[in-house]
């Protein structure tokens, strides 16, 4: 059983930065692959970035060089650093957890993600 709670979303100007956090409630945090997905109004949920149980990472082409996914193992927390934000980054950002094959290797698929948070809103104004 895993519970996820996102925080850190806000309204910012284009070019600005945000740091999103996801508090993870589980006794086996290191064994999970984790990820961030986002959904804009009227759009399908899309993969942003994933990090494996051995800390390898994969990013969507649209965010490469701007976003960084990371973990703090001492706090059971997943982070997403969002730099040089663009209006097209606007959406609800969801934290996710799952298996190496079903989440990490399957990226950007959302179909086999085991656990989802409730989301946090990011709005980027031009």
Element layout with pairings:
Blueprint: E1 3-7, E2 11-13, E3 18-25, E4 33-39, E5 46-51, E6 57-59, E7 67-72, E8 77-82, E9 91-98, H1 100-105, E10 115-116, E11 120-125
Parallel strand pairs: 2-11
Antiparallel strand pairs: 1-3, 3-8, 4-5, 4-9, 5-6, 7-8, 9-10, 9-11
The radius of gyration computed from the alpha-carbon positions, rounded to a whole number of angstroms, is 13 Å
Number of helices: 1
- Characterize the main sheet: 7 strands, mixed
Secondary-structure class: mainly beta
CA-to-CA gap between the ends?
40 Å
How would you characterize the overall build of this protein?
- With 126 residues, the protein is mainly beta.
- Helices cover 5% and strands 48% of the residues.
- Strands 2, 4, 5, 6, 9, 10 and 11 form a 7-stranded mixed beta sheet that branches. The chain has a 4-stranded antiparallel beta sheet with strand order 1-3-8-7, with no helix packed on it.
- It has 1 helix and 11 strands.
- The mean pLDDT is 97.
